[in-house]
Amino acid sequence: xxxxxxxxxxxxxxxxxxxxxxxxxxxxxxxxxxxxxxxxxxxxxxxxxxxxxxxxxxxxxxxxxxxxxxxxxxxxxxxxxxxxxxxxxxxxxxx
Length: 95
Description:
Blueprint: E1 2-10, H1 15-32, E2 36-43, E3 50-56, H2 59-71, H3 73-78, E4 81-90
Antiparallel strand pairs: 1-3, 1-4, 2-3
């Protein structure tokens, strides 16, 4: 398995708009992609940072998802989300 892991800076003033886009667009699109296994969208209230971990059953699907996310940076910025880190990793243990 492989994962795409991201750390995001989010404009909290646009939280409602961003949350709606996440639920109505991002999650359904992500779940529909080939090789999708699971996804986690997380928030650290102490730092305000958001974290994502999206698991795919193969490297090709994970790389395709990473490319898709990278191609949508302008759309993300329109709802106050900018990427700090986006990386593709190999899952070496799952419990």
